[in-house]
Amino acid sequence: MTATPAKTGPVTSVARNRTVRQYVARVLFAVLMTLVGVLFALPMVWLVLAPFDATPTLSLEWPDWTLDNFARLAENPYALRSIGNSLILGVGTMVIVVGLGALAAYAMSRIRIPGRDGILYALLLLSSIVTGTAAMVPTFQIITQLGLINNYVGVLLVLAGGILPTVIFILKDFMDSIPKSYEESARLYGAGPFRILRDVVAPIARPGLAFISIWTIVQVWGNFLVPFILLRSPDLQPAAVLMYTFYTESGQADLRLISTFALLFSAPVLIIYFVVNRRYGFRFHGGIKS
Amino acid sequence: MTSSTVTPPAGRVTAPRRRRADDVAGLGKARAGLFVAPALIIIGIFLLFPAVWTVWLGMTDYRLTGLQAASPEFVGLENYTEALTDPAFWNSLWLTLIFVVASGIVGQTLIGFGLAWSVRNITGWVKALIEGLVLAAWVIPASVASFLWLALLDRRTGTVNALLGTEGAAWLIDHPMEAIILFNIWVGTAFSMQLFSSALSAVPPSQIESAKMVGASGWQQLRDVIVPNIKGHILTNTLLITLWTFNTFTPYLVTAGGPNGKTEILSVYIYETAIPGGQLGLGAAISLIMLLINLVIALGYVRVAQGRRKR
Amino acid sequence: MAGITATQLVKEYPGGVRGVDEVDVEIRDGEFFALLGPSGCGKTTLLRSIAGLEAITSGSLVIGDRDVTNAEPGVRGVAMVFQDYALFPHMDVGDNIAYPLRIKRVKRDERRGTAAKVADGLSLQGLIERRPGQLSGGQQQRVALARAVATRPDVLLLDEPLSNLDARLRLEARTFLKELQRDLGVTTVFVTHDQAEALALADRIAVMRAGKLQQIGTPREVFQRPNNTFVAGFIGSNPMNLLPAQVRESRLAVGDATVSLPPGTEQLVREGQDVVWGIRPEYVRWVTAEEAGAIPAEVSVVENLGASVLIVVNAGDRKLQVAVPEDQEPAPGDRGWIVPQLSKTLLFDAETTERIG
Amino acid sequence: MIHHSRRGIVAAFAVATASALVLAGCSGEAQPEETEDGPVTLTITANAITGGKNAAEADWIADWVIPQFEAAMEEEGRDVTVEFEPQGVDDENYKTKIALDLQSGEGADIIGMDGIWVGEFAEAGYIKPLSEVAGDAVDDWEGWEQIPEAVQAAVSFDDERYGVPQGADGRVLYYNKTLFEQAGLPADWQPESWDDVLDAARDLKQVEGVTPIQLNAGTAMGEATTMQGLLPLIVGTGEQVYEDGEWLGDSDGLRDALDLYKTIYIDEGLGDAVLQQEAAGRDTSFQLFAQNQIGILLEGDYFWRSVINPAEGVGTAPMADRDTVVGYAKIPAMEPGSGIEGQDFVSMSGGTGRVLNPNSEHPELAWELLAFMNSAEAYEERNATTISITPRTDVNDAILSEDPMLTFVSEEVLPVTAYRPPLAAYPQVSTALQQATLDVVSGSSVDDAMSAYVDAVTDIVGEDAVAGN
């Protein structure tokens, strides 16, 4: 990386030019990185400051420090609970999709099924329309018929159905890239497929599983429509739904509550993300293989 | 794990097929079926079934309320002809393409790659900070992120106007498409960055070094060593990003499709048609059209990938 | 402990390619057996078929007194060390070694104890809590071995056990393997493409080519009496000189020169037959004064091998390699004579490549 | 790449499995009949939630209605539990949710809804006339006498009562007396025609940093554009959006109204055209008015009660000096006497109400609860902290005197007000109207905006149902 001028004799002009050019490049690089950092940081500053301002506005200003907003939010009977609900939904969906997704992705990675990739692509495409508004009525009807309205099971299953194809798609990529000798080795000692998956494949694919778990939680965390239409009781609604209650009849945002809730709403996923990242480190393996 | 001087294992030459899809764990088709079944059942009931139902809805004049809710009529392909002859649909499709290309393919993918490439050789807090910020933008829930951007771009008290001294500039009115493109880049770049940074770390250093030794410039290294090595990742990334960008509804939270439909990308158009407009049948039909467009794009990518492989 | 008997073993891949083609082999109980051959000869496929990792297309496989042709790998009583060792990166050395015991539901304390004992035996003391990534190549290999022998398998399979080690370590590991195998007395089959390794380690060697067995024998047998020109050329650190020749008047015309037929082959050849004459470079002398049976030659290339020198000489229009003691090293361009040691020469049929006599 | 056959098999499998499960669900649905004497549970849902949207209503239901009603029932010896399912989302989402509930035969026994949804819900068969659901008790209710016909009409359809209105409102022109003073305008202002309004706006334009008039336009504000913008203008020309079975088409009245938009936003720059297109434009207009930056604003009494209300924690853009600075005037017709029914002044009213769920297992009891929620006592309690106009004249007489503005609306505005047609097609026609204002405000000619509107409305209701065709 660093340029070392010739050790003996005078520094040649070529070397000097190179040094200058590298220096300029490094400065430019530093400026660019700073710019990118600022661009990404800028919108978030408001999130960090506004909740602590006695009278937050949309503008970025040094707060008139107070914790009143948090106290007010704590009085809301649903706010804090909704974050807990989001955790239940997020983690619940994660357990379902990562568990079932890993099983399915493993089998699809190791067994040749005709048209396997085609099915995966098709499901991936379908998941995009069904999670949208168009399939809302069918989804609601199915859950009603199954008697799962106002029940987390219904929400979890619908969320899982929408997310599973992508999870399988990404996990299969991970599994494809795991050297087969690990599994063969375990198999020689008499380990069955389920054991192999548990003892060998899952731990080795752990970064992938960690990544997909976080991805799932992020997806569920922000999902408004599914829990909203499938749950009746506000005690059960997750934070994504509750966030919308902090608007007045005419759509005005209550900035004090919104800003504070936004921070509390974002914090758990951010914390989960950084803890998991620190502990497991996210690594993708492979891409779509030939 | 293994050192880079591994000789190709003997006996593998005659059996190249073993590389993939070999039943190394002794799964057997029946057990593989059992492994796949729970996921497929959930997908079948909660994804496929509503999807088929949606296709059916797309052939009716169904509405959520009003007379057509009580007795929807089968209209065949009428919804499709209606959508395809509506200039608003084509306008929306055009906006979507701009949005996907600019924010997804060019924005997220290139910036994500650029970030992964830039931070690969730096360590310590700078890397952690940059990556942390980009990832935080990705993790923050969409409803919060959109609110942050409303605050950022607000015409009167927005942060951008305060910083640039452009008091009263209505970014979301005058440059709505640019705004949601930037917004979507901000939200989504982390995925590409993550994917590419692990892809880059898997490129054998020896290959880069040998390219360096023959005097390849950074650009040449990229073209001749890096890109061929991470082709699979590029495909995965582009495919997923395209699909996601095509279907994202989050920009609605920033501009609500406005002003005057200037940011009415397809997902918003479907929402406007189906919910405020009440025409669920038509909305379902447009959804299916969107699915077909996605399908064409996906097939295109796969074709490109296969074409490359043959060479 | 058990022997292995493969009968008419075939492994056919979809598309009709045969990785293993009608192989008959009998490996004795406690034997150290090598599968030797160039890349792609089917030796690893055969090994994996024994392990049960490849489904056998036809033929039968018996380990001990059990027919395991269609048995699951886990019940065959075999253990295997993979070429890349396949040590689980998420487990420490102890857990890696104890993994087979965990499958057999041995309690944790007990299996950690066994693992520690096995590790001690393989000079892995103090490494029990390390992760595989923190070990050297040699240590990794020993961990893989320890894991394989921890369950006291009937058969130990080694896939290119030494290929991932550097040259110096390889020699040490070779000795170590040999000792280990002798101590355990376990039937061991190993795959290698390195003939020196096979010669050094194995009790018997099976040489394979294109899925077919070429020769089974002791190292001495395959070295001294190779079945065909392929084995002859493959075995030995310096490949055997194989020169086209013709039988003429009970002698052998090799280019311009004529030499005596190898002893005992006189009755087996007919006049005018095209044959291949084989002689190892070690069994040819380079002399600077003419003597009986000597063929005139000129040195073209000299390669220093340390204690000896390998020279390439032109004898008429034929080229031969000759091993020369270091103190007799000639210079390129020197003229002299070569003298083959008649009793060590071999004769192969030019058409079938089979050895004559 | 895609293997159709395989996909087909999977699809068939999934449908089969799902159908099996759905059938199982159906058969298992039968619930034990509750006897009349046994414990009964009633549920109420409304787009109101404690600590959030419409919190006052939610609190009132939870803290007063439910305990009071349960206690009253207990006195009668009946074991009734009332549950409240609060919501707190935007109206579109709330509407979607209750539509889904009703469509599947589920949902709360008493459902709060906007009056303009009644038509489409009734057409869909989701709701039924009250008396059909709960029997004769409905018509015998004392409350009807207290609720003016026009207010009842807000939650009626086809001359049948589908619900009980829960409030009444009216629209006025708010103006800022401080700014008026600076512009040399009277503090006591009552325009007689559109020109009077324009004249005042022109004067206000001379004041630095002030947007003279805010007349909602554009699609971003949704229904606020129609209710607080175009519709009050249209009725001021003597026309109605729906009259004699026909929807408004290319008419002089609509042209005049769009011309007014053009004058304000394009020709004379009296309003902020950009603000109309902002996603949070209405919100911003509130803030600006509260900050003395908007001269004249057409809004409902809601603006007075809940936006600029200085009371702690009530107003979202509180104006401490509201009572002295903010003036209000009736909306003039285009010219005196040109409004509907030859009126000089006009207004629009909306209204929300509560309906009975026809799927209710205890419709009579649900009606009792609904009637209880609309009793004079209930409204008095409901307005104990923040006063609003109730549908009941007896209650209004008692409570409104405290607030001159609401008295003004009740006495001066409600008599001249008009209502939107409670028809299924209305929301779409409304969107077309909003689009027309947007076109004008973003620079299209009135002719172009008009023809686009006529095309759109023809598409929605069919050629025969558009006036002027």
From TrEMBL, chain A:
* Gene Ontology, cellular component aspect: plasma membrane
Identify the main location. membrane
Annotated compartments: Cell membrane
Any keyword Transmembrane helix? yes
* Native organism: Agromyces agglutinans
Q: Name one Pfam family in it.
A: BPD_transp_1
> Which named protein is this?
ABC transporter permease subunit
UniProt KW keywords = Cell membrane, Membrane, Transmembrane, Transmembrane helix, Transport
Any idea where the ABC transmembrane type-1 domain is? 83-276
Task: Write out the similarity annotation.
Answer: Belongs to the binding-protein-dependent transport system permease family.
Biological processes per GO annotation? transmembrane transport
From TrEMBL, chain B:
Q: Which residues cross the membrane?
A: 34-56, 93-117, 129-152, 180-203, 234-254, 280-302
Which part of the chain is the ABC transmembrane type-1 domain?
89-301
InterPro entries recorded:
MetI-like (IPR000515), MetI-like_sf (IPR035906)
BP-aspect Gene Ontology terms: transmembrane transport
| UniProt keywords, alphabetically | Cell membrane, Membrane, Transmembrane, Transmembrane helix, Transport
Please provide, in alphabetical order, the Gene Ontology terms of the cellular component aspect for this entry. Answer: plasma membrane
What SUPFAM superfamilies does its record include?
MetI-like
Q: Where in the cell is it found?
A: Cell membrane
Enumerate the Gene3D superfamilies for this protein: MetI-like
Is Cell membrane one of the keywords? yes
Family assignment from sequence similarity? Belongs to the binding-protein-dependent transport system permease family.
> Know the name of this protein?
ABC transporter permease subunit
Q: In which organism is this protein found?
A: Agromyces agglutinans
> Upper taxonomic classification of the species?
Bacteria, Bacillati, Actinomycetota, Actinomycetes, Micrococcales
TrEMBL record, chain C:
Q: Which PROSITE patterns match?
A: ABC_TRANSPORTER_1 (PS00211), ABC_TRANSPORTER_2 (PS50893)
Q: Which domain of life is it from?
A: Bacteria
- Give the species: Agromyces agglutinans
Q: Looking at the UniProt record for this protein, which Gene Ontology cellular component terms does it annotate, in alphabetical order?
A: ATP-binding cassette (ABC) transporter complex, substrate-binding subunit-containing
The GO molecular function terms of this record are: ABC-type transporter activity; ATP binding; ATP hydrolysis activity
* Domain annotation ABC transporter: ranges: 4-235
Q: Which residue ranges does UniProt annotate as crossing the membrane?
A: none
Gene3D superfamilies hit by this protein: 2.40.50.100, Nucleic acid-binding proteins, P-loop containing nucleotide triphosphate hydrolases
A Pfam family matched in the record: OB_MalK
**Per its UniProt record, what InterPro entries does this chain match?**
AAA+_ATPase (IPR003593), ABC_transporter-like_ATP-bd (IPR003439), ABC_transporter-like_CS (IPR017871), ABC_transpr_MalK/UgpC-like (IPR047641), Mo/tungstate-bd_C_term_dom (IPR008995), NA-bd_OB-fold (IPR012340), OB_MalK-like (IPR040582), P-loop_NTPase (IPR027417)
Q: Which UniProt keywords apply?
A: ATP-binding, Cell membrane, Membrane, Nucleotide-binding, Translocase, Transport
Write the protein's name: ATP-binding cassette domain-containing protein
Automatic annotation (TrEMBL), chain D:
Q: Cite the InterPro entries for this sequence.
A: Bact_solute-bd_prot1, SBP
SUPFAM superfamilies (UniProt xref): Periplasmic binding protein-like II
Q: What is this protein called?
A: Extracellular solute-binding protein
Q: What are the entry keywords?
A: Signal
ATP-binding among keywords:
no
**Which range is the signal sequence, renumbered to this chain?**
1-24
State the organism named in the record: Agromyces agglutinans
